[in-house]
Amino acid sequence: MSRFSKYILWMLLILGIIFLAADYIYDYIFLNTSPRDKVQLAIKQKQGHVDYLFLGNSRVENYIDCSIIEKRTGKTCENFGVSGSSYQDSYVLLSLLKENGLTYSHLFIQLDASVKNETMTKSFKASLVPFIDSSIQMKDVELKLSWSEKNIPFYQYAKYDYLYGMRACFAQLYKNKRDDVSLGFIPQYGVGDNYANQIVLSGLKNKYVKYLKEDAIQDQASIHFYTSPYCAKMKNTFAFNKFKDDYKDYINYASFYKNEDYFANCTHMNFQGAQIFTRQLIKDFNL
Questions:
Q1: Could you tell me which residues come within 8 angstroms of residue 113 by beta carbon, excluding any fewer than 6 positions away?
Q2: Residue-wise over 92-117: b if at least 16 C-beta within 10 A, else e?
Q3: Which of 5, 181, 205, 215 has minimal Cβ neighbours within 10 Å of its Cβ?
Q4: Angle 8-9-14 (CA atoms, 0-180°, nearest 5)?
């Protein structure tokens, strides 16, 4: 064997050891430190019973202040909304929560134009990376990992470096108050220019919304559907009324508020708006 061939083999061996060591270190950090996102919170934290459970995207995460609900009702509340998430993401998140011992009495699902999306988002899939070896198996859900993701040490972390890179490792070890995901509610602040588009509702049904409903029924919980408010300039918000045909007791709040001071932008309320909307939801759903 030539000197050059030996050099290549040695380099490959050293790189393999480095990748194995890095994979082990990253696994240890993300699996053994306190939760920094809601997927980690669902997987790591032993769950008990919650009276009101909210799932959805940023239009849940930025809107529902569970501290108000708990203070007003004397019951427990969890906001597991995740910014940018799909309904498949929410279904997987509920399955993870239940697998870790969560029971619930009421499940709230926010419906909007993203109902057309039945795929898992890339960011949510990436958030599952440290837990791939766990038995994450749910109805009609497939992570679709490539051969490289399954078999090459550290490849998953390298691929999703934007979420699980060196910076994320340090953030995982040295958290600040902004990383307290147990609060659930993550408000937006300020008043935006409220530039608006038109609502385009290209679909009404989503199989993962159906699965969420089936799970709630199986778990002997009540399920509630609603659409969070948009700014007054948003056009065609009445299109959401079509959800009433498929989802019992659905409430369309899309054009409920006219005051632009309640909105950080046309699709998201700010802190002040979220406080007002949470109180309205308590009243309308008789919490």
A1: 199, 200, 201, 202
A2: bbbbbbbbeebebbbbbbbbbbbbeb
A3: 5
A4: 100
pLDDT of residue 157: 78
In the prediction, which pLDDT does 262 show?
95
Q: Residue 29: how many CB atoms within 10 A of its CB?
A: 16
Separation in Å, CA 243 to CA 98, 154, 173, 262, 280: 27, 44, 44, 25, 20
Taking the C-alpha atoms of residue 27 and residue 195, their distance in angstroms, rounded to an integer, is 43
Contact 80, 53 (CB under 8 A): yes
Q: 268-269 and 263-265: which strand pairing?
A: antiparallel
**Residue 244: both structure tokens together:** 């009433």
For 240-259, b/e burial (b = at least 16 CB within 10 A) is beebeeebeebbbbbbbbee
Q: From 183, 189, 181, 228, select the one nearest 66 (Cα to Cα).
A: 183
State the pTM of this model. Answer: 0.85
The predicted pLDDT at position 52 comes to 97
Distance CA 133, CA 29 (A): 15
CA–CA separation, 115 vs 31, rounded Å? 32
pLDDT in tens, 148-197: 777 777 777 777 777 676 777 777 677 654 555 556 899 999 988 767 78
Judged by DSSP in three states, 231 sits in coil
pLDDT < 50 regions, the chain: 135, 177
For residue 234, what are its two tokens?
A: 């948003």
Which pLDDT tens digit goes with each residue over 6-20? 777 878 778 878 888
